[in-house]
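Quick one, T. Sequence first:
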Amino acid sequence: MTDLLDKVPLGKTGLAVSRLCFGMAPIGDMPGTYGHSVSVTQAHATVNAVMDSEVNFLDTSRNYGMGRSEQRIGEVIKARGGIPKGFVISSKLDRDMDTLKFDAAQARRSLEESLTALNVDHIQLLHLHDPEHAASLSEITGKNGAIAELFRMKDEGLATAVGLAAGNVDIMMPLLRDWEDRKST
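Structure tokens:
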């Protein structure tokens, strides 16, 4: 039987993660989505419990609770004096929620907000989040788009590994194929 707490390589990223990852959207206090509120005290207790467990992997996003999820995780990280050794945080670059703009400048803004909220100087696993909800896919994929910026962030050491986190495979696969085609030319 597979142990969900065993650490396994995450693709070719060099990261080793537990097979179980805790999604931190609910600690962003989104009663409209989850049907209940989550207090700061509950959120902090949850993050501390995860970081004290054998699970070494949690996932969050800039738009979970309009930044509250990352902020609450960051408060715990600050109180603990940093991330536990070997712990992996996955977060996401998000579009501007008012304009739906998702170009390189917005991606950079999203990362800077995440780094500040999380109280970290880099993110181990950084995804481009929900491109299917952006105003324009060409804005994401263009020369000055969010995808190119995501890879620049990795090259700058602001992320260990990068990827896409989206719900619509019909949109994700062409984005990946088109990006790989452009990189090889």
